[in-house]
Design brief:
CATH topology: Jelly Rolls
Oligomer: single chain
Order of helices and strands: EEEEEEEEEEEHEEEEEEEEEH
Strand content: 35-45%
Protein name: 5-deoxyglucuronate isomerase
Number of helices: 2
Shape: globular
Structural class: mainly beta
Strand order of the largest sheet: 2-3-4-11-6-9-12
Helix content: under 10%
CATH superfamily: Jelly Rolls
Number of domains: 1
CATH architecture: Sandwich
Number of strands: 20
Length: 300
């Protein structure tokens, strides 16, 4: 990993080597929703779907009174309301809760519904156990076979007080030594990064890699260039060219292991990093996960 000294991630334990790795690499994946028609367009909701190995991103434009429902949802999922003016009323089991805009909510397994109290954009995060949504993803064909570098998905422990609707405001002030604004549940870790005020200093980028998990970078505002490089192997036929992909909003980039990557804001913008399941290294940093008391770490 190569972080500028001002980056809080410089204090993380070193990752494993991204040197010689056997076997072909999975490619990076880019879903630029602004270039395509939605996969669903009905009942006041337009939705785009894209996925990685362990996750599904559902980006939607909704109208007032629109409802998104799930029946027999197999696991906990995420609702992201990025804009202050759009709230939602969530029903899950016997519980009903209104969640204000500019917030994040974790919704229990089972039957649930979300009714929107205004018009705007929303994001939901699911695992591929939601097979109906996985089938709708624009890039579904790229994930028919498992990636041997990524372990099978395992949920993190259930909260001690059980599943319920949990919501958290995104209005969290920046704090020295803390990286972004991070929350986790049993299935996801969401890092609502500090917004970019303008183009990122090209002398303070952060090239790094992950050995055994994907990173999803969701661009909500502005534009970012994702710089991605794969290590060389002994088999030159498996080498991949470097990529420097400009992604505007809204878009999803799936960054596979063990590619070396860094992203540069090209203008003022907002990006969200998503991991499924949650990251152990971020969870081990005191104070980084803002709702750590609600969701225990795995044993050991």
């Amino acid at each position: 990993m190569a972080y500028d000294a001002s980056d809080p991630r410089a204090a993380l334990a070193p990752a494993g080597s991204a040197g010689i790795v056997a076997g072909a690499y999975a490619p990076a994946d880019y879903a630029k929703f602004y270039e395509t028609e939605p996969q669903e367009d009905a009942d006041g909701i337009r939705s785009w779907f894209a996925r990685g190995r362990n996750f599904i991103i559902a980006y939607s434009e909704v109208t007032a009174g629109a409802v998104l429902a799930r029946q027999a949802q197999p696991d906990e999922y995420v609702l992201l309301l990025p804009d202050p003016g759009l709230s939602a009323t969530i029903m899950a089991g016997a519980e009903t809760k209104t969640v204000e805009g500019h917030s994040l909510a974790f919704i229990p397994p089972g039957d649930s519904s979300i009714t929107f109290n205004g018009a705007g954009r929303i994001v939901r995060l699911f695992t591929p156990r939601s097979a109906d949504l996985a089938a709708q993803c624009s890039n579904a064909a790229g994930y028919l076979e498992p990636d041997p570098r990524i372990p099978p998905l395992q949920d993190w422990p259930t909260p001690p007080d059980g599943f319920r609707i949990r919501s958290y405001t995104l209005d969290v002030p920046k704090e020295p030594g803390r990286f972004g604004r991070i929350w986790r549940c049993t299935t996801f870790m969401v890092n609502y990064l500090d917004p970019a005020a303008g183009p990122r200093d090209i002398r303070k980028l952060s090239p790094h890699h992950h050995d055994d998990f994907e990173q999803c970078s969701l661009v909500l505002n502005g534009s970012y260039t994702h710089h991605i490089r794969w290590p060389w192997t002994t088999d030159m036929t498996l080498w991949r060219e470097d990529e420097h992909e400009l992604c505007k909003a809204p878009s999803v980039t799936v960054i596979p292991p063990p590619s070396i990557h860094t992203s540069r804001a090209e203008e003022a913008g907002q990006m969200v990093d998503i991991f499924c399941p949650p990251r152990v290294d971020f969870s081990a940093k005191p104070g980084w996960v803002l709702n750590a008391a609600d969701y225990p770490l795995p044993h050991g």
